[in-house]
Sequence to fold (80 residues):
Amino acid sequence: MTFKDLKKRVSLETIIQQQSKLFDICKDKPFWIWNIQAHKQQDIKTKGNCCFNHTIGLPTKDAIEKPIYDYQKGVIIWST
Fold:
């Protein structure tokens, strides 16, 4: 095994560990909390890790974070 092979293996193991941590953090979280009051309460309770989207980061457009809009709810629910 060369140093280059070892570096690739360590990098891959690091990525797998990071993905595993992210999976554990996101597991059992709702994709989005549609009720605004419930969302705010959960946000405070979990310090910003209230739902999947807030945990991984909201979608952005022109470097501005955007919430999930009501019209998208039908698409999300329909596709699950």
In short: The longest strand covers residues 60-61. The longest helix spans residues 3-26. The chain has a mean pLDDT of 85.
